[in-house]
């Protein structure tokens, strides 16, 4: 049995899309614009047809890079972007007021050099603004043809239900991998129930499941993983051991660790798609090469027993970040 193409916002896509964040920010040193452009073009050539970006990625750099590089190939891919995290100088805030959403969308259209974005997400929940008001503003943009569909990122099942009652939600995006099981608390099933596509970001455990030899000591000081408990102190050594054992399972199955992680994520439901990110051409090819491989049920169970909420050490986010996340969380041990 193999995996087939899947649906997001009424459009058939490859279940492995491309998260574009690392081309501008977050993981190590971003590539040059020339190398980033080459990777984007190569992605479309390899069969990637779902690209995911956001205004916050490089404070507009990521959208600009995509717009400049792919404006001549706009009809070849499903384009998703996000708003809601606003940068003011050195400060960041979450702002999903209707007027902020509209202004942000207009700027994204300009940077992306397009007249519409296929899927536009609220990047985070604004607890000061009713979700109904924010979704109502997005609904107006759908009516105007400026966005094709509405998405939510890192939001709870309750928030998803309230939003969906205001206007149909096409996609819910949250971190999901064998290492991060929060979606299994509620949102994975709510998306299945409501016909919402679940978009898994960081499906290879922020790189650790793809590279068990990862050395945090070699990461640049601005790499966001350095602030994450799972990549700190004894937690990291423990988790790297789990990743090494995960890699041994992949070798036995004849796939790479990244391919095993992606297949595991896609096995969680036909409504699930994944958006691994990379800045490396070899990883770009690797991530999509076995997109249709279905993980055997026995192997999935073996992964579940090895890596899960009880066996992974450390929270996925640091203490300062957690209050901004609406997705359900496990009780502290």
Automatic annotation (TrEMBL):
SUPFAM superfamilies given in the database record: NAD(P)-linked oxidoreductase
Query: A Pfam family in this protein?
Result: Aldo_ket_red
Keyword list (alphabetical) reads: Oxidoreductase
User: Which InterPro entries does UniProt cross-reference here?
Assistant: AKR, Aldo-Keto_reductase, NAD(P)_OxRdtase_dom_sf, NADP_OxRdtase_dom
Instruction: Name the domain of life.
Output: Bacteria
Ranges for domain NADP-dependent oxidoreductase: 16-307
Stored PANTHER family: AFLATOXIN B1 ALDEHYDE REDUCTASE, ALDO-KETO REDUCTASE YAKC [NADP(+)]
Q: Can you say what this protein is called?
A: Aldo/keto reductase
This chain's source organism reads: Novosphingobium cyanobacteriorum
């Amino acid at each position: 049995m193999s995996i087939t193409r899947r649906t997001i916002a009424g459009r058939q896509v490859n279940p492995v899309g491309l998260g574009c964040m690392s081309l501008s920010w977050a993981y190590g040193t971003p590539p040059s614009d020339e190398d980033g452009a080459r990777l984007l073009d190569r992605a479309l050539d390899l069969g990637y047809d779902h690209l995911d970006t956001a205004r916050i990625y490089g404070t507009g750099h990521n959208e600009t890079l995509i717009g400049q590089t792919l404006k001549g190939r706009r009809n070849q891919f499903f384009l998703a972007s996000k708003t809601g995290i606003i940068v003011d100088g050195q400060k960041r805030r979450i702002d999903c007021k209707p007027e902020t959403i509209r202004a942000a969308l207009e700027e994204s259209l300009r940077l992306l050099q397009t007249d519409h974005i296929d899927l536009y997400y609220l990047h985070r929940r604004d607890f000061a603004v009713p979700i109904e008001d924010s979704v109502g503003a997005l609904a107006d943009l759908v009516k105007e043809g400026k966005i094709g569909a509405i998405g939510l990122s890192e939001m709870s099942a309750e928030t998803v239900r309230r939003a969906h009652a205001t206007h149909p939600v096409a996609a819910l995006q949250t971190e999901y991998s064998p290492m991060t099981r929060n979606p299994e608390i509620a949102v994975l099933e709510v998306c299945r129930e409501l016909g919402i596509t679940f978009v898994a970001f960081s499906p290879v455990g922020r790189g650790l499941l793809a590279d068990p030899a990862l050395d945090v000591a070699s990461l640049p000081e601005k790499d966001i993983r350095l602030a994450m408990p799972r990549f700190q102190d004894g937690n990291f050594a423990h988790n790297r051991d789990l990743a090494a054992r995960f890699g041994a399972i992949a070798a036995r199955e004849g796939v790479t660790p990244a391919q095993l992680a992606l297949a595991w994520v896609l096995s969680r439901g036909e409504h699930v798609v994944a958006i691994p990110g990379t800045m490396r051409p070899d990883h770009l090819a690797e991530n999509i090469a076995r997109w249709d491989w279905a993980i055997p049920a026995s192997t999935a169970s073996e992964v579940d027993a090895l890596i899960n909420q009880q066996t992974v050490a450390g929270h996925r986010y640091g203490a300062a970040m957690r209050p901004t996340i609406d997705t359900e969380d496990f009780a502290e041990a």
